[in-house]
Amino acid sequence: MRQPFILGDVEIYWLEGGLFEIDGGSMFGVVPKVLWEKKCAATPDNYVTVADFAMLLKTPAANILIETGLGNKLTAKQQQIFRLRREWDIPAELERLGLSRQQIDHVILTHCDFDHAGGITMLDGQERLELTFPNALHHMQRDEWEDVCAPNSRAASSYWPINFEGLVPGANLQLADGDYQVAAGVEVFKTGGHTRGHQGVRLCSQGETALHLGDLLPTAAYSNPLWVTAYDNFPLDSVAAKEAILPGAFARKIWFLFYHEPRTLACRFGEDGEVSEEFSEVLLR
Q: What is the residue extent of each domain of the chain?
């Protein structure tokens, strides 16, 4: 069985949410390739591997999922466009850990791009659409939900209505206005930047702390606050948020959890922004 990362009394597992390839220039924006390729290997045609490893938090009080992966609804054309290398398998991954998808209590979305929110809904064996985690309370920022419901021309290409069918504010969807507690020791906080309503997650247990910064820190390569993706809708807000969060977190040796990192699943950074300690697992089968 896959070994968990232990933070206090919380077990954290990374689940198979899909693996695909994306243009390296899009992932690193204005950062020259001569710099980013030292931290992230590229194919001959300039593509990099991007994981979608949803995080299961098994806390004493609840089973919590951070992000939901690509889902199982991509068409053959979409699979080709996104150069899908491995398919979404979260329900089976949960079963291997002794859980059903009905036992997930909370789902936290840092934001609603298709590669994070695609697993909110799924197709069953008869190709019928249903909520993947029917008993879960889903969490996102109110600004994010407003943009899901009325996306601008840029967001519309990534906020797919099929991913949100069945979510009802006040019922199975909790909308946050800034910082709030999802469950004991698990908090969300608004960052903006990548999207208007982008949020991070703070996990505290027995004196230990971990942060998941979503697509502000998609992999360990982005420890420089100036490194942001070309997909960030508000890049200066991304830089400002990282400048406010990272130096103090580096100094305190806080753990960072990653969703898009195919090898280093969690790490601590030194004050120079270089990885000083890491938790990794060979998930690239």
A: 5-280
Per-residue tokens: 229: 């993706």
Residue 283: strand pairing partners:
none
What totals of helices (H) and strands (E) does the chain contain, helices first?
A: 7, 16
Residue 169 amino acid letter: P
CA 185, CA 173: separation in Å to the nearest integer? 20
Task: Say which residues have a Cβ less than 8 Å from residue 64's Cβ, sequence separation at least 6.
Answer: 56, 57, 104, 105, 106, 107, 108, 182, 183, 186
- Is 0.70 topped by the overall pTM? yes
153 Cβ partners below 8 Å, 6+ apart? none
Q: What is the dihedral of CA 160, 181, 173, 262, to 10 degrees?
A: 30
3 state DSSP class of 254: coil
Residue 181, SS3 per DSSP: strand
Q: Which CATH superfamily is domain 5-280 in?
A: Ribonuclease Z/Hydroxyacylglutathione hydrolase-like (3.60.15.10)
Q: Contact 21/48 with Cβ under 8 angstroms? A: yes
Count Cβ neighbours within 10 Å for each residue of 230-264 and write b for 16 or more, e otherwise.
Answer: ebbbbbebbbebbeebbeebbeeebbbbbbbbbeb
Please report which residue ranges of the chain form alpha helices under DSSP H. Answer: 24-28, 33-36, 76-81, 90-96, 114-117, 142-149, 235-251
* Token representation of residue 49: 């591997």
Task: Say which residues have a Cβ less than 8 Å from residue 69's Cβ, sequence separation at least 6.
Answer: 15, 16, 17, 18, 52, 53, 54, 88, 90, 115, 116, 118, 119
Divide the 285 residues of the chain into consecutive groups of 10 and give the mean pLDDT of each group.
88 96 95 94 94 97 97 96 96 96 98 98 95 98 97 90 97 97 97 97 97 98 97 97 98 97 94 94 51
Q: State the Cα–Cα distance between residues 107 and 119, nearest whole angstrom.
A: 10
